[in-house]
Specification:
Helix content: 40-55%
Shape: globular
Number of strands: 22
CATH topology of the largest domain: TIM Barrel
Radius of gyration: 26 Å
Oligomer: single chain
Number of helices: 27
Distance between the termini: 79 Å
Strand order of the largest sheet: 1-12-11-10-9-8-6-2
CATH architecture of the largest domain: Alpha-Beta Barrel
Strand content: 5-15%
CATH class of the largest domain: Alpha Beta
Structural class: alpha/beta
Length: 776
């Protein structure tokens, strides 16, 4: 049997116990030094490499670690920090790094005219990870700063590891960026010729430093690329191959389709493909890839947490191994950044469901089992047999569990499918708008927030004590009521027009709902990185979904009782709950989305009956759910928008339905967003300086819009005039009568002082616009 090797494209970096998160936040608060932060980072890298070797990987992956974001790492690696920050070179690299990530108020306020707003943030392909968007213009120059990466290679080699370094490929790095303040006609691909020499220098340095391989991630090969980008690959890699380093191009997340031949003929030593998302292409890749090249097969799912069917994986691999004479490596489909660390930390996870799961460390064990099964080594045959038997038993348990399928849910889904009115509001928007304006009596440019307010230590302590059983239910209810009342009083003081209850009782916008729905289970430590130090703990959807009882009505009613101003009922939409969970893979995602939509529909009905006049159903993940290939967009958007409409259509015409979307490009799906038929949509737009609204203007979006006027992911507090300028930009492309005023996103991660200052400035900005542009 052919000798195979194992590796992974990348590993989670936040730490098994979120050590990096806490180290970062201590550093940002000034409670820890840079040396302490770097020491934590070094320890984590060493632990992650050791774990990879313990599970038999033939090389460890170096360069996948980042203090905030791996794309931002490349901005510094290639010395292309945007000139608008005004960096002189005298600043510490880490200070510049975090200025790009979090904003630089101090530098901006020095009077030199520089713009210290944080880099725009958007979704990493179709995942829930957010990356910082590089900015390019015709003056962008590249200068290699490789010390950190070379030091990491040295660290790994000193620990006795064989090293595979990983980088973003040059085409993907440029693709992920955007042109900002560039002259007409400039395209970021124009910079490739000046970028490639720096990559070549780095590859030579990595080879000299002892990296056995260099993995160059080019996931854009799975996209619908313009010809200019496709045609740039072969000459670019011909140049890079001259470095003498052993190069492996890695693709993932999507089939290669028309780029199969291109990927296979690139002048590199190896190719990694995603055999989970693009299983149907594996045979073609095995045929097209020259025999002397290494084929890396991503056979274990790096995006989801279900245990692998090892027998099926083996059956997939055997014909490929039989036809390939060249080297074959086994791997996860993509970086394990998107799954939690280990089931070993889960001591309270549902005992029936737990054996069905595999986190990052368990996926390494699955790779080891497949490698051993293919080795024909008698010394491990008993271990392999036991491992395969355990996997078969877990899969059989999941298939036959009575908890997975619910006859009542199936009956309701069939009824909804037969009722076209279930996904349609009663009256068209113009009629609803008139009824809502008569009911709400809001001023022009009405002000509101997206939903959450700061989760103080007091709130988190009370919630944690309640979950541990240390705080009686009555005491917990009182603590949350006090937090809600504080949020309401603060909003009244700021002068906001539409209030929210602040979501003090919610740990996470998806987990909170999942905890109250059938078909979900939860981890205690299943954290994954969303961006920077922000981690989320996605629920696990293992079975049919339904709502046993009301989830939010009590809190919304209490908040509304405290004020004469309207208070929004706050819900998370079905597509976002789906996208931000680990979803069952035994039925179509569309079916699961519709089950969730039916549950949210019940909550909308109950909120309305409780007197709540505005209900917000957040769908920030709608865009990220898009397939990466446009040919698959229509099918996805059809079921995704239908799921939203099912959840909202039960509302009466005088009840105003809001939705919120953030940190994604929306202009290419505006017809689908309009098809949601929400009365008001709030969107992220401040980091992009209202660029997103251009599409809303040309499309003539029919309903009301709240473009975010300040970035809540940065501690920076913009002035009222800055916000007013953004609103003026918005009013030039959207009729003022349709405009709302709000932040980019929820305020959960911010502190009260900066929140108060920003919202007071926001209200002042709205008042300026009312005086200047109030529609007649």
């Amino acid at each position: 049997m052919k000798l195979v090797q194992t590796h992974i494209p990348g590993y989670p970096r936040i730490g098994a116990a979120r050590e990096l998160k806490f180290a970062l936040e201590r550093f940002w608060r000034g409670e820890a030094s840079e040396a302490a932060l770097q020491e934590t980072a070094s320890k984590l890298r060493a632990q992650h490499w050791s774990t990879q070797r313990q599970h038999g990987l033939d090389c460890v992956t170096v360069g996948d670690f980042a203090l905030y974001d791996h794309v931002a790492n490349h901005v510094q690696l290639f010395g292309c920090e945007p000139s608008r920050f005004g960096f002189t070179g005298g600043e510490a690299p880490l200070a510049r790094y975090f200025a790009m990530a979090r904003g630089d108020s101090a530098h901006e306020q020095c009077g030199c005219g520089h713009n210290g707003a944080a880099l725009e943030m958007t979704k990493w392909f179709d995942t829930n990870y957010h990356y910082l968007v590089p900015e390019f213009d015709e003056s962008t120059a590249f200068e290699l700063h490789s010390k950190q990466l070379l030091d990491e290679v040295t660290e790994a080699r000193a620990a006795g590891h064989r090293v595979k370094a990983v980088l973003l490929g040059p085409l993907t790095f440029l693709w992920l960026g955007k042109e900002r303040n560039a002259r007409d006609g400039f395209q970021r691909l124009d910079l490739l010729d000046s970028l490639l020499p720096q990559y070549s220098r780095l590859l030579m340095q990595l080879r000299v430093a002892g990296a056995d391989w260099v993995q160059l991630d080019e996931p854009i090969l799975g996209l619908d690329l313009p010809n200019a980008w496709r045609n740039a690959f072969e000459p670019a890699y011909w140049l890079l191959n001259q470095s003498g380093a052993q190069l492996m191009v890695a693709t993932y997340f999507s089939p290669l389709e028309e780029n199969v031949s291109l990927a296979c003929r690139l002048p590199v030593a190896g190719l990694h493909v995603d055999a989970v998302r693009a299983a149907s292409e594996l045979a073609s890749v095995a045929d097209w890839l020259p025999a002397h090249k290494t084929l890396s097969i991503g056979i274990i799912d790096g995006r989801n947490i279900w245990r692998s069917d090892l027998d099926t994986a083996l059956a997939t691999l055997m014909p490929v191994l039989a036809k390939r004479t060249g080297p074959v490596w086994l791997s996860t489909s993509c970086s394990l950044l998107h799954v939690p660390f280990s089931l070993a930390a889960e001591t309270s996870l549902d005992e029936e469901v737990k054996p069905w799961l595999a986190f990052a460390e368990e996926k390494l064990a699955e790779l080891a089992l497949l490698k051993a099964a293919l080795s024909a080594d008698e010394r491990v045959s008993g271990q392999v047999a036991r491992g395969f038997a355990e996997a078969r038993a877990a899969l059989a348990s999941r298939r036959t569990s009575a908890r997975v399928h619910n006859a009542d849910v199936a009956k309701r889904m069939a009824a909804l499918a037969c009722d076209p009115a279930a996904a349609r509001r009663h009256a068209p928007f113009a009629q609803r708008q008139q009824l809502q304006r008569e009911r709400l009596r809001l001023p022009a440019f009405p002000t509101t927030t997206i939903g959450s307010f700061p989760q103080t230590q007091q709130i988190r302590t009370a919630r944690a004590a309640f979950k541990r059983g240390e705080l009686p239910p009555a005491a917990y209810q009182q603590a949350m009521r006090e937090a809600i009342e504080h949020a309401i009083r603060q909003q009244e003081e700021f002068g906001l027009d539409v209030l929210v209850h602040g979501e003090a009782e919610r740990n996470d916008m998806v987990e909170y709902f999942g905890e109250q729905l059938d078909g979900f289970t939860f981890t205690a430590n299943g954290w994954v990185q969303s961006y920077g130090s922000r981690c989320v703990k996605p629920p696990v959807i293992y079975g049919d979904v339904q709502r046993p009882q009301a989830m939010t009505v009590h809190w919304a009613q209490f908040a509304q009782s405290l004020t004469g101003k309207p208070v929004k009922g706050m819900l998370t939409g079905p597509v976002t709950i789906l996208q931000w969970s680990f979803v069952r893979d035994d039925q179509a995602r569309a079916d699961t989305a519709q089950q969730i939509a039916a549950a949210i529909r019940d909550e909308v009905r109950d909120l309305e009956h409780a007197g709540i006049a505005i209900i917000q159903i957040d769908e920030p993940a709608l865009r990220e759910g898009l397939p990466l290939r446009r040919s698959r967009w229509d099918a996805y958007l059809d079921w995704a928008t239908k799921a939203f409409r099912i959840s909202a259509a039960v509302a009466a015409d005088a009840t105003q339905i809001h939705t919120h979307m953030c940190y994604a490009e929306f202009n290419d799906i505006l017809p689908a967003i309009a098809a949601l038929d929400a009365d008001v949509i709030t969107i992220e737009s401040s980091r992009s300086a209202m660029e997103l609204l251009g599409g809303f203007a040309s499309f003539r979006y029919p309903n009301e819009i709240g473009p975010g006027v300040y970035d809540i992911h940065s501690p920076r507090v913009p002035g009222s005039e800055e916000m007013a300028d953004l609103l003026r930009k918005a009013a030039r492309v959207v009729p003022p009568a349709q405009l709302w005023v709000n932040p980019d996103c929820g305020l959960k991660t911010r502190a009260w002082p900066e929140t108060a200052a920003a919202l007071q400035n926001m209200v002042a900005a709205a008042q300026k616009l009312r005086a200047e542009l109030e529609p007649s």
